[in-house]
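Onboarding guide, step 5: your first structure request.
Type a short instruction followed by the sequence, for example:

Predict the 3D structure of this protein.
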Amino acid sequence: MSHWKRFTQEPKIAYFSMEIGLSAEIPTYSGGLGILAGDTIKSAADLKLPMVAVTLASRHGYFIQTIDPEGRQREASATWNPGRFMELLPVKTLVTIEDRDIKIQSWLYRVKSPTGGEIPALFLDTDIPGNSEEDRHITDHLYGGDLSIRLKQEIVLGIGGARMLEALGFSIKKFHMNEGHASFLTLELLDRARHPVEDTWDERASWDTRRVMNQCVFTTHTPVPAGHDRFPYDLVKKVLGDRIPLPLLQELAGKESLNMTMLALNLSGYVNGVAKKHGEISQSLFPGFEIHAITNGIHTFTWASPYFVSLFDKYIPGWAHEPELLVRVDNIPDEEIWEAHCGAKAYLFQYIEETTGTKLDSEVLTIGFARRSATYKRGDLIFTDLERLVHIGKGKLQLVFGGKAHPRDEPGKQIIQRIIEKTSQIKGQVKAVYLENYNMEVAYRLVSGVDLWLNNPIRPLEASGTSGMKAALNGVPNFSVLDGWWIEGHIEGMTGWSIGPPATETDLNDNHASEDLEDLYNKLENIIIPLYYEDRAGWIRVMKNAIGKNAYYFNTHVMMRRYATEAYIR
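The system replies with structure tokens like these:
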């Protein structure tokens, strides 16, 4: 038996995600969705859950970001070689695209845990001799190309991924779609459920869909319309063909265009949002479906800085495998918490000086903000009133920013440009720096090395927001709009601070920009800055609460136990 075949010996949960972030060296992720997928798989390995992951190889990654002298984002390919990290499996499969058979191969990456657990992750790849030059590049760039390329990528992921698992000999008891990109796997399952041969789709459609629903779990991540892929049916017919009758496809995926989210919703027996509030928002967006909520988490061992790893090992043995033990953080003396934080801060500041030439002051309260640069995340909100920011922060604040805009998101790129313009305008008064090419490696330093984590999206558009969980794990309090996970993790003045009014809306058009801004400035000036400089013991108490009341619960171990009991075992 080939050594990889041991993974096929027991039925598995197949976890499909367009992007997976396992390490900075494997750049097959763009942001939170991919990092969550990587953390999910790591926790599955820790917990020895029977899982296999499926994604695309994305040989040229998402992109490497540089910022030009005018503050404009520039993109370059993040090319990597799967052969350095993975084993090419000897089995291939086919998908039909534009009436051509396209070969797909897969690379096996083993996600290993110190517990002895091991999860196989399959990276699908069309760069194979025998495929046309055009087809060899389908899986090159994550979220790259035009609508036609995106559609082809999603066919490779969903249909190709399901066929690859079958070709390799995997027995799958549940298919878990992490976002709608993999929804075409439901069509492959629907096709398999169509028997005996003489049956027509229409005669057996209801029976077929029930069978597929019993196999599928779907997690939706975004209330933002751009997060739900749609394809015109004329393009679908051209690329996918008409193996599935158009009336049935329209019934399952939408009348006007093929909506990947609707397709997944209609063919999944269990659907969930990624925070309690997001579950409510998703329920209002998609009435008629039962939408649950399982709040996202982070893989604690991945995201704890080396300084806190040592500290937790000393005072809370077993924390990495049982993150709920972090509730015992009060066992750690205050001075050792502060010492670990100062180590993480120095680690970050050294990186900032090496990469930007900017030397930050370790004694000054430092705020971190790093997100995908999208308009609803409002990365430049704190700069709205520069005069007030300087009045509040001169000599008392430092700001560190990071994040990429999608190459075709012009408004997102303009936000980066505005942040860089504003930082130059307050130069000499409030130090601020924008870190290029935000990735897992930069995030690892940033979330633990700042003193306060800022998040100010337009509510209720933040589905979850796991970067704040990474900060909390490292004793960095959150200062955030009440949206996503922070509604559940926030205790005012204890685990951090809120920005703006309570979260009562379900309307996507509600906007509290003026209230949010006023509250942000007021709390900085009157509560946060005085606490940091005048009451170190009080500040450390908030740091400990961030660990003991947030990090102990908002992790992927807790999340995966809930998926196992609520979604997988049905």
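Each response can be followed by summary notes, for example: The two ends are 32 Å apart (CA to CA).
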